[in-house]
Write a structure and sequence with these properties.
By secondary structure, this protein is α/β, with parallel strands linked by helices. It is built from 8 helices and 9 strands. The strands form 2 sheets. It has a 7-stranded parallel beta sheet, sandwiched between helices. α1 crosses α8 (about 225-240), α3 (about 70-80) runs parallel beside α4 and α4 (about 105-135) packs parallel to α5 (about 160-180). The structure holds NADP nicotinamide-adenine-dinucleotide phosphate.
Amino acid sequence: MRFTHTTAVITGAGSGIGKAAAIRLAKEGAEVILVGRTLSKLEASADEINSLLNRKAASVFQADVTNEKSVQELALFVDSNFGDLHILINNAGGSAQSRILDTPETEWNEVQNVNLKSVFLVSKELGKIMAAGVKHEVLERKNRSIVNVASLSGHQAGAHIPHYSSAKAGVINFTKSLALEMAAFGIRVNSVSPGFVETPLTEDGLQNEKFAAAIARNTALGRVGKADEIANIIAFAASPEASYMTGTDILADGGWLIK
Ligand SMILES: NC(=O)c1ccc[n+]([C@@H]2O[C@H](COP(=O)([O-])OP(=O)(O)OC[C@H]3O[C@@H](n4cnc5c(N)ncnc54)[C@H](OP(=O)(O)O)[C@@H]3O)[C@@H](O)[C@H]2O)c1
């Protein structure tokens, strides 16, 4: 149990990788706060976690992580209900498909906002609670960690996702800046970059047999990943087992880049 006496916020926890990460952390003892825009999805995730563990391990908070006021309300909720925060998983994200020459400015901004600005806003507001918690620790320092979900696309730009590739490369670099700043508090910050993973985000694409076959062909392990496999890596980066790791990115792409 790596996360006993640990409070964790997971954004985008109503589905996919975020939900799998929330389940992983809660199974190992954490109190998890699930954040997203769609309350019904968050409540379904929380119900699943609470009935699986037979305790109230999961709470929900509806927030748009691209909106500063909404993120400040989240910070207020965490502070007043939990009084401290040890782990933050910045997982919310998404993309649209377009060519640079056809991309409207609004779409560019939306993709930057949900993938990159959100990581800045949430890290800023919840990072203050994490740093304040460190100052109250007298006898021993607790494990505190931020994990940002970047992407293989942040390493190798994808066709027709110029905004997403740029934003995720930004997340990888923002992670390093944040790690430098938070090291003063002993708070570690790393990113995890998944390759192709079966989630609602990739569902439509993977239903296209030709596309799915091309992914498998170009991946050394010959298959797409599962949300649980990424959740395991997020949990490792968040856990005390990664106590000497900060400011780095863990690429989990099934061997896409080596092919
Ligand atoms: N699946 C892959 O192959 C893959 C590969 C590389 C990286 N990733 C990254 O992994 C992360 C999780 O994606 P996923 O694949 O698990 O897809 P997903 O199931 O669509 O999860 C994304 C979650 O983010 C939430 N979200 C989106 N916009 C938000 C906002 N403005 N405020 C709050 N929450 C928001 C969504 O819920 P609401 O719409 O209800 O808010 C949703 O639950 C993303 O950062 C994605 O870029 C995925």
